[in-house]
Amino acid sequence: MIRLVALDLDGTFYAGRSLGVPASAWEAVEKGRRHGLRFAVCTGRPQGGYGLEYAKRLEPNGAHVFNDGASVCDATGRSLQADPLPHLSELVGLARAHALPFDLMGAEGGRYYEEGLMPPELLSHIETTGVEARSARLEEIEETLVRLWFVVGDLGLWESVKPELVALPSIDLAEYISPREVIAGVIRKGVSKATGLRWLAQYYGLSLSEIAMIGDSHNDLEAIREAGLGIAMGNAVEAIRAAARHITGHVREDGFAEAVEYILAYNRQNQL
């Protein structure tokens, strides 16, 4: 029996700026609740902003995973679990030395950038999440920091600095590369959405077999594999599709609602 549905946001629940969250997705959540399901955001987005608004509506009295597992909070944004990012001084030192735009994510929902390192591409990256950022140097921040994002428009510069970043122990670097920029997230090594699922299981007193994970991108892979029921969106990358037990429709075509229907059918079948 599935009792908790963990869901990625972008490409899974949220269908982009023009469509937002489809009405069918919210209707599916309400139907799932009537049948005893609980819901938890499990996203790479920073804590707060639009992601926290969705979390509050999905499960106002529950726990939610942000920053790819590096932070867990309740629907008010109160921190429940955090994995501090190691080597912050070295990471920020490299960014300053090479003029790499970056921002830092906190376990209480804070988001920080440094004056002079705020190009348009970083500003756009911040605005898409709805998490307000403020200028502060690392040495001034008291909040526990769990993630650093680089947003670099110069691909050559990024490739020249990347070996220094990769050489730092105890961190994981995830890159999203387009022809115009590199967006790279840094978190503590070993932290992922899968560790977030394990935390949720303990919090709710569940086994992983009682949790479903719905996702579409590479950062969902470990969680899809560990969940009792892994579901890939129709728009998911091939690795997710291959690992999932079921593939549903595209996020723009009521795919999330189909995923919830599949979970309810799965539960009915397992009640027999």
From TrEMBL:
It holds the Pfam family Hydrolase_3. Gene3D superfamilies: 3.30.1240.10, HAD superfamily/HAD-like. One of its GO terms (molecular function) is magnesium ion binding. One of its GO terms (cellular component) is cytosol. The keyword Hydrolase applies. Keywords: Hydrolase. It comes from the Bacteria. PANTHER family: HAD SUPERFAMILY HYDROLASE-LIKE, TYPE 3, PHOSPHOSERINE PHOSPHATASE. This is Cof family hydrolase. The lineage of its organism: Bacteria, Thermotogati, Deinococcota, Deinococci, Thermales.
